Amino acid sequence: MNKILFTFIFALFFSNIYSQESYVKLSFTKSNCPTIIIEKDIIANESTIGTKKDLILEMSVLKDKPNRKEHKFFNLTENGIVFFTLKNKPTFKTQTELNEFFGIEKNNEIYVNGYLIENSDFKIATESIIEIELIEPDSENKLERKVINVWTLTKEERTNGCKKQNAN
Q: Is residue 156 part of a domain?
C-alpha cells in the first residue's frame, strides 16, 4: 500500500514539474504581437517607439517563456516581449487611475490586448492606448466581475497579427 501511495505522489510531483503554465487571457485573444515594455514597467506599442529611434538607449528581446513565480511580466510573454530603455519616459496611466476613471474598484484586474496584467506595478503608455473596453462577465469569458481591456494594438493587428520585421 505504501509503495502504491509513494508511486502516486511521485507521479503527481513530476507531472506538475513538467506541466506548462497557461496564460490568463480573454477568450477572444488571438494576436501574435509581442508585448512592448519601456523602463521595465510601462506597457506600450510600436508607435510609442517608432519615430524616436534616436532616443533608444537599450533594447532586448525575450522569446522564451519565463517562470511565473520569478517574473512579474510572465502573463504578457506568450508572443515574446521587447524591452526598451529610452532617454525620455513616456507619459502613462496607472492601473488604479484607469479603474477609477471607469468607476471600478481601484485594485480591479486590467487586461492589455486580452492578457491579464498580473502585477499592479505595470503602467500603460498614454499615447499607446488605442481603445479601452469595459468587459462584463458572461459564460464565455468566465470573469467574476467587470474588467477593463486596454488595446494597444490596432484593429488590423488584432485581426491579422503584427508585421514580421526582417533583420537586415
A: yes
Query: Residue 150 in contact with residue 111, Cβ under 8 Å?
Result: yes
- Distance separating alpha carbons of residues 65 and 95, to the nearest angstrom: 24
> What pLDDT does residue 17 have?
40
Question: What is the number of structural domains in the chain?
Answer: 1
Which residue is it, cell 496584467?
A: 117
Q: Does a structural domain hold residue 70?
A: yes
> Measuring CA to CA, which residue among 87, 84, 110 is closest to residue 97?
110
pTM, whole model, 2 decimals? 0.81
Examine residue 6 and state whether it is found in any structural domain, yes or no.
no
Q: Residues in the chain with pLDDT < 50?
A: 1-2, 5-19, 166-168
What domain range includes position 81? 21-160
Tell me: the pLDDT tens digits for 129-153? 999 999 999 888 889 999 999 999 9
Q: Is the separation of the CB atoms in 36 and 50 below 8 Å?
A: no
- Locus of grid cell 506600450: 44
**Is residue 46 included in any domain, yes or no?**
yes
Contact (Cβ atoms closer than 8 angstroms) between residue 150 and residue 110: yes
